[in-house]
């Protein structure tokens, strides 16, 4: 048999039908559902008088619209309250397991799937959310779908797809101290651009990727979509299996042994064909900060704001000037001279326990600058409980950070957590688009340690100078 990639193998094992024009029908193993992209899908089922085909393969949670302050008194904002109530009703009506805003297991959809062992290697996983690529860290084929596809998957447990191309991004070598998974993925997007992965599924490989924890691997796969790829994935290995073992919904006993044997067959074969290859050396990577309004606008923290006049392409030049104007920055400014008003530590990119540990390590015994409002939002109730068991909440509170309830929060400001116009924020999330964190808000993407250090210094600092 021809050598196959990880993507090829999962694809082949889920193919239900292939039409002569290349249109395929794929079986879907897992469907995650959140409040933003599901209401019309359920309404569609209701109108057609259809049921959910496989409720046990479907899991619903609220994350985008939930407040991150005390929820016991309900949700003030009527629109958010309606979104949340609608999901609760739909989950009950269609017999789907649902983690509501008061459930310990509630959290950002891409954090709770792995936590519960709902996300497993070799699976096809979808959700009406672009950052579904996160789950690819387990060696799954995971990607976002639109609301009409959510309805299709709910009704049939299948999805119409055409096959993407294979791309491999190899990150060789060892990461320097203070440089993290977030810096790897920002560097990759800086290298390939936001359209670099278009039409491809990216497999991340190489020593630096293999050395990452599952948390770090999820951070990398999470932002595959910001590099334009359909999905991102990493072959499963011992680190993957150790993370999954004993999770509530992971296979147990002989089912585990069978599953593991299958998982071990998944890594790309020697000699498998990749349509595109990109290589990076981890040893050369610095801590990265974005300067513009696209995730590809990356620069080393030791760098200066670039001059768009150096760009040959006229349209690109104009768009980068516009980004600088929006961001309120001028070419040549040292990134370490850029001061901040807000800091956001959280999101499905960097809201896991390891991220909070990295931020707390920086915050310990220090104080948030008077000019900065900083908040830490755990990615899930279980992350929050774990952090509290380790005393991280105390460290953050003593340093002057706010300690919030889990959810998407200021990653996209669909709730009360927002930037005011022209406020500048160091954020551990994945998108720095105009208005993403609030109207006219200015977002700089960074790693958790860099965000914590920026909160304390009141400006960007090179975390390597702090002994991290
Ligand atoms: C609201 C949702 C549809 C959206 C997405 O698909 O990614 C959100 O999660 C985001 O990060 O922008
Ligand atoms: S945390 Fe941000 S990126 Fe992730 S699902 Fe929520 S809004 Fe989207």
UniProtKB/TrEMBL annotation:
It catalyses: (2R,3S)-3-isopropylmalate = (2S)-2-isopropylmalate. It holds the Pfam family Aconitase. Residues 8-458 form the Aconitase/3-isopropylmalate dehydratase large subunit alpha/beta/alpha domain. Its EC number is 4.2.1.33. SUPFAM superfamilies: Aconitase iron-sulfur domain. It is an enzyme of class 4 (lyase). InterPro entries: 3-IsopropMal_deHydase_lsu (IPR004430), Acnase/IPM_dHydase_lsu_aba_1/3 (IPR015931), Acoase/IPM_deHydtase_lsu_aba (IPR001030), Aconitase_4Fe-4S_BS (IPR018136), Aconitase_4Fe-4S_dom (IPR036008), IPM_dehydratase_rel_enz (IPR050067), IPMI_cat (IPR033941). The keyword NADP does not apply. Keywords: 4Fe-4S, Amino-acid biosynthesis, Branched-chain amino acid biosynthesis, Iron, Iron-sulfur, Leucine biosynthesis, Lyase, Metal-binding. CDD domains: IPMI (cd01583). [4Fe-4S] cluster binds at residues 348, 408, 411. Binds 1 [4Fe-4S] cluster per subunit. Pathway: Amino-acid biosynthesis; L-leucine biosynthesis; L-leucine from 3-methyl-2-oxobutanoate: step 2/4. Its cofactor is [4Fe-4S] cluster. It comes from the Bacteria. GO terms for molecular function: (R)-2-methylmalate dehydratase activity; 3-isopropylmalate dehydratase activity. Belongs to the aconitase/IPM isomerase family. LeuC type 1 subfamily. Catalyzes the isomerization between 2-isopropylmalate and 3-isopropylmalate, via the formation of 2-isopropylmaleate. Heterodimer of LeuC and LeuD. NCBIfam families: leuC (TIGR00170), PRK05478.1 (NF004016), PRK12466.1 (NF009116). This is 3-isopropylmalate dehydratase large subunit. It comes from Rhodopseudomonas julia. The gene is leuC.
């Amino acid at each position: 048999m021809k050598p196959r990639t990880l993507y090829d193998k999962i694809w082949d094992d889920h193919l239900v039908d292939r039409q002569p024009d290349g249109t395929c029908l794929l079986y879907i193993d897992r469907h995650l559902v959140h409040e933003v992209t599901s209401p019309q899908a359920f309404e569609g089922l209701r109108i057609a008088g259809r049921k959910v085909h496989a409720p046990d393969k479907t899991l619903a949670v609220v994350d985008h619209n939930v407040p991150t302050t005390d929820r016991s008194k309900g949700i003030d904002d009527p629109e958010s309250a309606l979104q949340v109530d609608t999901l609760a009703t739909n989950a009950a009506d269609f017999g789907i397991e649902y983690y509501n805003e008061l459930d310990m297991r509630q959290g950002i959809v891409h954090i709770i799937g792995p936590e519960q062992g709902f996300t497993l290697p070799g699976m096809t996983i979808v959700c009406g959310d672009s950052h579904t690529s996160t789950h690819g860290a387990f060696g799954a084929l995971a990607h976002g779908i639109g609301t009409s596809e959510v309805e299709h998957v709910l009704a049939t447990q299948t999805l119409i797809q055409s096959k993407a191309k294979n791309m491999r991004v190899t990150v060789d070598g060892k990461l320097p101290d203070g440089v993290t998974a977030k810096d790897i993925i920002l560097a990759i997007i800086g290298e390939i651009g936001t359209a670099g992965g278009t039409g491809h599924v990216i497999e991340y490989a190489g020593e630096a990727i293999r050395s990452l924890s599952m948390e770090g691997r999820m951070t990398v796969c999470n932002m595959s979509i910001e590099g334009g790829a359909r999905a991102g994935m990493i072959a499963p290995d011992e680190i993957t299996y150790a993370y999954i073992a004993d999770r509530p919904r992971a296979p147990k006993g002989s089912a585990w042994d069978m599953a593991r044997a299958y998982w071990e067959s998944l890594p790309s074969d020697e000699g498998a064909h990749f349509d595109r290859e990109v290589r990076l050396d981890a040893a050369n990577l610095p801590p990265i900060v974005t300067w513009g309004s696209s995730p590809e606008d990356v620069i080393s923290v030791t760098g200066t704001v670039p001059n768009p006049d150096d760009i040959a392409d006229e349209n690109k030049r104009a768009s980068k000037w516009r980004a600088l104007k929006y961001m309120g920055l001028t070419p040549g400014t040292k990134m370490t001279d850029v001061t901040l008003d807000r800091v956001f530590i959280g999101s499905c990119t960097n809201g896991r326990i390891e991220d909070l540990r990295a931020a707390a390590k920086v915050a310990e015994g220090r104080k948030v600058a008077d000019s900065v409002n900083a908040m830490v939002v755990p990615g899930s109730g279980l992350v929050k409980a774990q952090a509290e068991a380790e005393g991280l909440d105390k460290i953050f509170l003593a340093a002057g950070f706010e300690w919030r309830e889990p959810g998407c929060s200021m990653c996209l400001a669909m709730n009360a957590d927002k930037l005011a116009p022209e406020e500048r924020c160091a954020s551990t999330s994945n998108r720095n688009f105009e208005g993403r964190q609030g109207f006219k808000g200015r977002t700089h993407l960074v790693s958790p340690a860099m965000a914590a250090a920026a909160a304390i210094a009141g400006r960007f600092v090179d975390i390597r100078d702090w002994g991290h």
